[in-house]
Structures are given as C-alpha cells and as structure tokens.
Amino acid sequence: MSVTITVNGMPRTIDVDPDKPLLWALREDMKLPGTKFGCGAGLCGACTVMMDGEAIRSCQTPVGSIEGKAVTTIEHVATTAIGRRVSEAWVALDVPQCGYCQAGQIMSATALLTQIPAPTPEQIDSAMSGNICRCATYLRIRAAIAKAAAA
Amino acid sequence: MSAAAHLDRRGFLTVSLLGGTVLAFDACVPLSAQGVGAGAPGVLNAFVRIAPDNAITIGAKNPEIGQGIRTMLPMLIAEELDADWAQVRIEQTLANDALYGPQVAGGSRATPVNWLPMRRVGAAARQMILTAAAAEWGVDVATLTTERGYVVAAASGRRAPYAAFAARAAGLPAPDLATVTLKAAKDFRIIGTAQPGVDTPAIVAGKPLFGIDTDLPDMVHAAIAISPVFGGTIKTLDDAAVRAMPGVVAVVRLNSGLAAAGGADDAVAVVADSWWTAAQARRKLAITWARPAAGGDHATASYERTAATLLDAAPRHDLYRSGDAAAALKDAHRVVTERYDYPFLAHATLEPQNCTARFADGKLELWAPSQAPAAGRKATAKALGIAPEAITIHMPRIGGGFGRRLMNDYMVQAALIAKAVPGRPVKLLYDRADDIRHDCYRPAGWHRLTAGLDANGAITAITDHFVSFGQDGEPAIAAEMSPFEFPAQLVPAVHYGATYMPTTMPTGWLRAPTSNAMAFTFQGFLDEVALAAGCDLPDLLRRTLGAPRTLPPPERGAAFDTGRARRVIDAVCTRASWTGGRARPGARTAGKGRGFGFYFSHAGYFAEVVDITVVDGAAIQVDKVWVAGDVGSQVINPLNAVHQVQGSVIDGIAQALAGQKIEVVAGAATQENFGDFPLLRIDGAPRAIDVTFVPSDAAPTGLGEPALPPVIPAIANAVFDATGRRLRSLPLRLA
C-alpha cells in the first residue's frame, strides 16, 4: 500500500506495509538513518522525530497512521530556527559521547523549546526524561537546552 | 616488507610519496619497548598523510565507543608533528593488529599504551620535514622551527608549508623512534587543551556513522532467534510459512556461540530484504527448544539460597593470606562482620548489537562495532574455518560499549549468516529483548567480610569470603577478585577466599569490571568499620594508608601508591568541605545525607563525596557529587576527561539506584527492555558533578572507567548518614 507523508519539507510517497513503524520507514524506505532504533517500545527516545511541531516516538507510530502529516527528522532539524539554535548549542558544548541517542535528544529538545521557549530546569528534566542517554551526557543536555533557549 | 619482521627493532618510521604527491609516514613501534603493557604484541602503524595543499590526515586506530579516542590519539600525533589541529582530518583505520598493534577499547588501556608511541610518530615525522627543509634551503637544521604545519626560519622569517618538502623528506632515512626528541610538557599546544570530539558535528547532523547505519549495495537484513534458555538448542523448526513470506531471502540455523561445537544449533536467523520484514517473519517461526543437559533449572532465587549457604562455610579457594587472620580477630578490640551482595547486570548499550558481513570467494568483510576486533577476527575465522587473513574488518563508530562489545558473539553470528547467503552483505541486528536476554552479564557476587580493630581504631585483620560463579576452582569471566583487593596490602592479617558456583549465564566485563562491585562491597564495609573505630571513612583510610610509598605490584595491573591515594582523598574532602560524614545536627530530619568512597582501579585513584536527599523515606536522589582523581602527570583532553568522569559517575548512580538487576528463571533471563531493566534518566542525574584532577609524576593513564566505582559506596554511605539504615545489597532500596 502506498502512504504519502511530508518528510523534511518534501512530500514522500512510499509503497509500504501501513503497520511498519515510521522509524523503519525512515531508515529503510527513505534512507534517513539519522533516526535511531533503541528499544522498539517507546521507552528510550532514540527514535524521536517531530510531527507537526510535537516530539513523537517513531518506533511506536505506524506509518499508515500519519498519512498527510509533516515529519521533521534530525537530518533537517537545523533548517528550522529553533532546531538550529539547539544544534549549535549541542556542538558548542560538545554534548555527545558515543552519540547514538543524540538525534532523539535534539529532537525532544527542539520540541520542548518550540512549546516552551524558556523552560525552567524542572521543565527541562520533565520534557527530556523520555530520552535515555546511556553515556549519561545529562548535565550537558541541560546546559545546551538552557544555552539554546538564551540564544 | 613485512612489518612483523621488524619486531626486534627499536621502532622505525617508513616514509613514502603516495602517487608522487602525498607525503606518507607509517611508523612501526614495538609497544613492548615502551615500558607499558609488557609483552604487548605487534607493531604500530599510525599513519600521517600530508597532501600537496598541506592538508594533514591522521589515522585513528582504536574503536570509538564514546570514550573520545578518535580525538585523543590523533591529538598526540598532531602535538609532536606541530600540526594545526583545526586543519587536521581524522580517518578511521581498518582493524589490523599486525599493522597497528592493540586496537582495543577496554581496560582504560589506550592512554598508557599509546602515550609515547603516538607522540614519537609525530615527532619523527616533524624531524624529517625539518631535515628536508634545511637541505632545501641550505641552512643548518638548528636554525629552523615549526609552527602549525609550516617550517619557519626564525632569523630570515622565511616560511613554507610542510607539503613543500614532501619529495625531499620522502627520500630521507627515518630516525630511530626510540631516540626521537619529544616536546617538554610546557611546550604542549594541543595536549592539555580542551578539544571537542572530532565527530560531534556529524553526530548532531544525524550523519550515518554507526554500525547500524551500514548501508551497502544489495544488502539484506537478519533478525535472530536464540534459545531463550542459556545452552538450550533447537529441537524442531518449522520455517515453511516464513520462507513463503514476501521479502524473506533465507532461514539459517547457526550456533550463537553458546551451543556445544558439533552438536545441535541454538539459533535461527531470518534473512530478508528489510530488517522490519525479517523481525516480523522471525515471530512466525515455529521453534521448539531442547533444554540443556544442565542449567535448564537455574534461577536467581536458587543462586541466592546456595550463596547464603556457601557463605556460612569456609571458602574453598584461597585468594590471599597474610599473617594469622583468625588469631588477630580473636585478639581484636572490636570485630565488625557483615554481608554484601550485588546482582547480575546487563550492559544495555543504546545501539543494540549488530554487525554487517559479506562472504564471497572464501573471503569475509565485516563492518563490526567491536571493542576488540582482533579477538573477533580470531573467533570468526575459527567459526567459518577460514584464515584470519581472509577477513577484512571495518570499524564504524559504536553506540556505546561498556564492555559488551569486547565479546564478539554477534560478529561471529553475522559471519555465519553471511556464509549462508554468499555474495550479499547481511546486516544482523538484535532487538532490545535479544540484546538484554543474550548479553554477557556482570556476574552477581556475595561477600562475608570481617574486620578486627585494635584499641586505637586501627585495622588489625580483615577477611572476606567471596561467593560468585565459575567452575573447576576458576572464576567465570569478570568474577575474578584481585588478591590485593584494598586494603589487603595494608593490613597485618588478611584472609581472602572464594567459592564458585556453576552457572549457564554467559558473563563478561562491564565498565570497571570487578571494581564496580568490589568498591561497593569494601568501601561500604569500611564505612561500617570506621564507625566502629570512632572516625569517618576518609580518616580510617588515611590511618590505614600510612606513609607515602609504592606497594609491590600485583601479578597483573598497576602498583598502588599510598601517597597518591592520600592526595585524592584530601583533595575531595577539601573541595566538598567534608567535615566528617556523620552527626551533622538536623541533617537526618531533612532527609539529607553525605557519603564518601575511594577506589583505585585501571591505574587511576578516585575519591568521591556524594550529597543525597531521601524523599518521603523511600526515594534516594543524588544532589551533587565531588570527584578528585589522579590519572598521572597530564590530562590529555580536559574537556573529554570531565565528560568521562561525569558519565562514569552517573553510570555508577544508575547501578546503585535505577533498580538494575538481571534475574534468571528456568535457565533464561527474564528482563527484556528498559521497563524492567531501567537506565538512569535525566531527572535522576545530580544537579552538578564537580571534577578536580590531582596531577602526579606518573605517566598518564586512562579515564574510561576508574571514576565509576567509588560513587556506588559513597551513595550507600550517604544513605546511612541520612537514615541510619545500612544498605548492603545492590541495587539500593529503602522501601
């Protein structure tokens, strides 16, 4: 079955099982591997993308359920004003260690600042608690969000 | 010319002009001559390429798991080469231990092993460029110097890029690496400066860097079903429905590595045109599993019962004896005896295990996220019955190691699957349940400790009965306890002994292996001993350490220096304004507690202070951590050094507080995702981690691990301070 969604500003029509999670449609069918597979259960946030301005877990989102929606992934997030500030803060503070979770972290951070331009430390922790960083870059994630918010 | 033929040399550099334009240095350094890692095999080939436009490319030879080695090792070369770091390009080498020497991300060894060899490569290359420049310009080499990739004649002000001397340098004899002059520390421009990770911009941009991102023409994907019971095998398999599914390419039986060689296989892989298809198809396999001959009934509960019984008896194996511990305990003014234990743990790297393999014409090519690719090559060659030289191994960036990828089970599995679909690259990817249920676990352990004190509060005797896993009197991997476990060498009468139970669970090294468990056990226990001695733990340690001196080294590992230990203990106490952990008026009612821990591992000395709050008498929140560490004379990349310490500390907090525990029922692990094997989340991280490095005269050592162990007992000790309750079992739980 064919599904049409807008990905990173471009309408994409893919011939795919509608039950296939958006994560795998992005990685396998659209060759956008920046979005990562971590748990397949919506528990780690590595697969986070933005859909119509909100952070969603792409591993829990059947691609057939978002027909006509607009999705932004890590590959494109820096073309948005908030995404660029977040990405720049991430580089400036050298946030990543292994780097595997960081796409999801950046997407969640961008969604947070889209909704709350100047979050409190508690709001940052609350919004980011769905994203696991196994290397524990959490102190820098907090600082980078604060920096991006102040930019 | 075979590199191996030069093992007897003191080290040499080869220089050549690639394609007539690019100046190439390849250095071979017998690592055993460096005074570290005695007996380390092979030679080192750390390449430097200088292009006609003066662009400098430096090879990064070790696996990158987030420890920052792709940045740090090239910094060492660039420093002595006097390159402009901002202009240096980094290129990952292949895995080839014959060319590059040890390429292991493990044991926090890369810093001590490479500190001198990498610098010598850069220094020798610079020296040859200077010699060539002196000849070209007809001046004495002593009148020339270098500046960020340029040769400079100080007197005349003449300058030219390194590349201008490529042809002449390529014709020069190379200097002896063992005698090449290195910079004095005061002249470092790159070493000791904060350098962000070389891949940070690409990570932030979502570029495909990781093993899981490997994408090759004609590639197919594999999902795997491994016997859930460790050691079980395939009894029956009906794959007719799966083979008929669109997109399925093959169904392959294989040995995951746990089945007996030559017997029945214990895993089934489904190969398909996408991983999603393969994972869906795998669910439709009708497999019945045969239980293993032994261990099919193993369970955490029975391990615990057996361990409790064994602890009551005498240890079956001696680890360390000094003096007469039994007599000393009889004569002691006070005796403290307690039991400590900790569970099996998974590694739970965020990037699940994966490997891409292509088998064609008797040769194998691997894209392997491995911390130990040389060991993987050996294991894979054996499993496929091919020569190790027939295997090419690429080293993609790795989404977390923590020791999991020192085991190469998934690499061998990918290779076996690839052999069944020759000519096509196959990417094997575990899902999260595969990853947690088929790990090589940090082994659980149980201890019965006893210490004797004299009337002055000095420790006169210590004993430990350690119960863990192994067979035939030998501990399982990562169940080894050092005979010198602190404070064995500092107490007059000591008896450490061990008893090992059989297990079918595969075990392996988890970041700061053995230390992550022993620190909790011994530093927690010593906090109790300090209380009995009427002092706090830092004071008990100072008293026990005595005068600054170096103790005899263990058979493997670094010698312990009491002075270095003392300095980090003092430094962290100063930094945290430690005034004695106990009896601060009003502290307990506010739920506030403060604890201390010290540990020496991986040649690094770390002392840590933790402030906690106990919320509603149940939840333990770490507020702030202070760390003082001594990893030698030079912190190479201070930015990444702080990152490694902070990450290690939070990793330790996770082991203490997140509720991590792998349990086994009927021979199979029961946990399967982050719901039942939780990792620490951002709201569990402390508000601040204060890091102080205490320099010493020792050569620099690694930072991937030694900051982790002390935080675990420091938290347990803080819980006692806050509540009066002593928690002697990991994970820590108040309610």
UniProtKB/TrEMBL annotation, chain A:
The keyword Oxidoreductase applies. SUPFAM superfamilies: 2Fe-2S ferredoxin-like, CO dehydrogenase ISP C-domain like. Transmembrane segments: none annotated. It comes from the Bacteria. Keywords: 2Fe-2S, Iron, Iron-sulfur, Metal-binding, Oxidoreductase. Pfam families: Fer2, Fer2_2. Residues 1-77 form the 2Fe-2S ferredoxin-type domain. GO terms for molecular function: 2 iron, 2 sulfur cluster binding; metal ion binding; oxidoreductase activity. This is (2Fe-2S)-binding protein.
Automatic annotation (TrEMBL), chain B:
Pfam families: MoCoBD_1, MoCoBD_2. InterPro entries: Ald_Oxase/Xan_DH_a/b, AldOxase/xan_DH_MoCoBD1, AldOxase/xan_DH_MoCoBD2, AldOxase/xan_DH_Mopterin-bd_sf, N-heterocyclic_Hydroxylase, OxRdtase_Mopterin-bd_su_IorB, TAT_signal. One of its GO terms (molecular function) is oxidoreductase activity. It comes from the Bacteria. This is Isoquinoline 1-oxidoreductase. Residues 205-293 form the Aldehyde oxidase/xanthine dehydrogenase a/b hammerhead domain.
